[in-house]
Hints:
Blueprint: E1 6-10, H1 17-27, H2 32-39, E2 48-54, E3 59-65, E4 91-92, H3 93-101, H4 107-128, E5 136-137, H5 143-159, E6 163-166, E7 169-170, E8 175-178, E9 181-184, H6 188-194, E10 199-200, H7 211-222, E11 233-242, E12 253-261, E13 269-280, H8 285-296, E14 301-310, E15 316-324, H9 329-339, E16 346-354, E17 356-362, E18 366-372, E19 378-382, H10 384-387, H11 394-411
Parallel strand pairs: 1-6, 7-10
Antiparallel strand pairs: 1-12, 2-3, 4-5, 8-9, 11-12, 13-15, 13-16, 14-15, 17-18, 18-19
Helix pairs in contact: 1-5, 1-7, 3-4, 4-5, 4-6, 4-7, 6-7, 8-9
Amino acid sequence: MSRLARIHLDPVGGIAGDMFVAAMADAFPEHVPGLMVELAKLGSVDGVRFLPHADGALHGRRFDVAAPLSSHGHAHSHHHGDGHEHDHLHVPHREIRARLQGAGLDPGVLRHALALFGLLAEVEGAVHGVGPEDVAFHEVGAWDSIVDFTAAAYFIATLAPESWSVGPLPLGGGRVKVAHGVLPMPAPATTRLLEGLTVIDDGVSGERVTPTGAAIARYVTRLGGAKAVARPSTIAAAGHGFGTMKLPGIPNMLRVLALADAPSMPQPLDEEIATLEFEVDDQTAEDLAVALERLRAAPGVLDASQSAIVGKKGRLATRVHVLARLDAADAVADLCLAQTTTLGVRISRVWRRTVARASVDTAGDVRVKVASRPTGEMTAKAEMDDIARVPGGRREREEARSRAEAEALKNTAPHGHRPDD
């Protein structure tokens, strides 16, 4: 898959670390096996599961993590995305960092995971008046949050879009009991992470954005959100990640939209080019064909063609016609003299007008040339070299041609930049 132009996070119900991972897995299920391999480096993944989820209207996934057995033989219980963190483990930031560094994670995954925890440690330290190194995580120190951040880091590193964007984040409201006592929603650390991001008060209370969710939202916007440029796009993938908390009248869901660049249609063009002509009547057709292939491959050559004529003394001859960029005319003329038996080349300057056109890759590895006519009509022509590789007979080739041309016309944007040829 080519690099994505942008991944957009749409926090319909809110965002938590597990909701982000679930939405990404729902959008990109082909990456889940690789994710599980990476998570296994941290410890047992027997309790790590992606569960199908439906809220009566929408379908997607939940990311469920059960902690490994404790020293007492009991598994810690975690409830993702429900607005409450029930594990009050005190895990120092330096211990989490050492564990991640010693796990043998992929370098890209490790870099993003450390950065996510570092961002959270920075704001937690500011809230509690201690340095980031001295922060002891409570609500986010447990196994499930380490898994959430590592899984998020895996998707960030693996997909690596050009930019990220995040929709308005719901403020929520109310109170929640945590290790520090009773806190208002959004929690103080979450509030600091939301600074500078767009928020919205939709009237629905609860912990709509968790500290891990806020850290992910803030972090990905730092990876290129400010550089996002509006341009024609297609939706390459979409995913729904659910939390377990029930919200009145709205799904507790994070939606992910992955956008790819739409093939651009260049603008029509008027330009001055060089035309080179000459005739030959004493070069074999086989050798002249080799010469024309070399001419077509030369820098600055736009096209080369030949036609049969009757020359002097009634001899059959071949007229060669070459189109080239003006700045390449001299070099192309010398190449004509070197590759053929002609003794001279006529060179003239002409104007040409081209229609807007673009080459589009379609399913089945069939390239299609799409053109926009002055009347506004869009036309498409599949490359015959690609159609020739389709197995079967004439009917199968025609069906492949029709599918490819229809797909190219559907996905091609009407504006863009002029190609080089």
